[in-house]
Design a protein that fits this description.
By secondary structure, this protein is mainly α. α2 (18-57) crosses α9 and α9 packs antiparallel against α10. The chain has helices at 2-11, 18-57, 61-78, 91-95, 104-114, 123-126, 136-144, 151-184, 195-222, 242-261, 266-284, 289-292, 296-323.
Length: 336
């Protein structure tokens, strides 16, 4: 179904025709991957490796918090991306099982910590265990949830940290190789057939990032009323990261949009750049999410931010479809 939609999108590319359109899509695809995607994944791999090294030195929670925060920041930069190598071997869910369904991380960690079986931590076996215990949310529970209290929990943490480091390293390497394919303007048997398809997917991921902020990072803990609001639904509440996740994601969306904006007319480029400044300033000024969702004034501030976020997304759609000839595709947050 997605393939049919993408085929339709390619036919619908009207602002440019012939070789100029093909070249534009190639240039956009390469610049976005070169300037943003590959460096972001390489930084994630770097931070994850440093985190694994920190676990090898110490199993004291206070010694591990800085490395966790830096790795989580790096993850926030690519969290909205589902296209490409991160989709291979269920890497995305294994790296970051969130939003959490049915308390899966807590249940998985309780089960894993209760059964002191060294065989469970063998790299190949661990990579096939529940996705809920393989990534950053599991490390957050250990470090900030008071679970790091025994030699066994230390071994579990080291295994999870190394698992994250291995996956992020492989993902970054795979993206580097994929970038070389994109540079040559060739298709790929797993991910895409044409450069136009790459551009559509990258554009779609950018837009999905705004939806992720709006629908999951903000609206999920807000719910539909103060009575139903729950600050503990906010992403990273244990590690005091809800606001930090929003601001890091917001900056990542600006950084991902920037190489697209390189191809816009100056007037439109400047207009969107200014809108992004408004968006980032609003993100930086958000009240503390975990308490604001239960406060009348705080909820109004959150609603104001959501309005700005939607305005920014709408302007991106308007400019990129009009000037770059990229149609809006489906993403994983659009539902059926």
């Amino acid at each position: 179904m997605k393939r049919l939609f993408l085929a339709f999108c390619l036919v619908a590319l009207t602002p440019f025709t012939g070789h100029s359109q093909d070249k534009l899509q190639h240039d956009i695809s390469y610049k976005v991957t070169h300037d943003f995607v590959v460096p972001a994944y390489e930084n994630l791999a770097k931070q994850a490796e440093a985190q694994a090294a920190a676990w090898k030195k110490s199993c004291k929670a206070d010694d591990l918090k800085d490395a966790y925060q830096k790795t989580a920041d790096a993850w926030a930069a690519v969290q909205h991306i589902t296209f490409g190598p991160v989709s291979l071997l269920i890497r995305k869910d294994r790296l970051y099982h969130w939003p959490e369904r049915r308390n899966a991380v807590a249940k998985g960690m309780t089960k894993l910590l209760a059964k002191e079986d060294e065989a469970l931590l063998a790299p190949k076996k661990f990579a096939r265990t529940s996705v809920a215990v393989q990534g950053l949310p599991a490390l957050e529970r250990l470090i900030y949830g008071g679970l790091l209290d025994s030699e066994w929990s230390c071994k579990v943490g080291k295994t999870v940290a190394q698992n994250v480091a291995t996956m992020t390293k492989n993902t970054a390497q795979d993206w580097k190789a994929l970038q070389a394919v994109i540079q040559k303007g060739e298709g790929h048997p797993l991910y895409f057939e044409t450069m136009s398809e790459v551009t559509i997917r990258l554009f779609t991921e950018l837009l999905a990032g705004f939806q992720m902020i709006n629908e999951q990072k903000i609206a999920l803990p807000m719910s539909t009323s103060i009575k139903k609001a729950n600050g503990r639904r906010a992403e990273g509440w244990r590690s005091n990261r809800p606001n930090r996740f929003v601001t890091e994601s917001a900056h990542a969306l600006r950084n991902m949009a920037t190489p697209f904006m390189h191809f816009l007319p100056k007037k439109d480029h400047d207009e969107l750049a200014q809108q992004f400044e408004t968006f980032l300033n609003a993100a930086n000024k958000l009240p503390t999410l975990t308490t604001a969702v239960k406060d009348v004034a705080g909820r109004e501030q959150l609603k104001d931010f959501l309005a700005i976020s939607k305005e920014t997304r709408a302007l991106i759609i308007k400019q990129f479809t009009q000037h770059l000839g990229i149609p809006v595709g489906f993403n994983n947050l659009d539902g059926d």
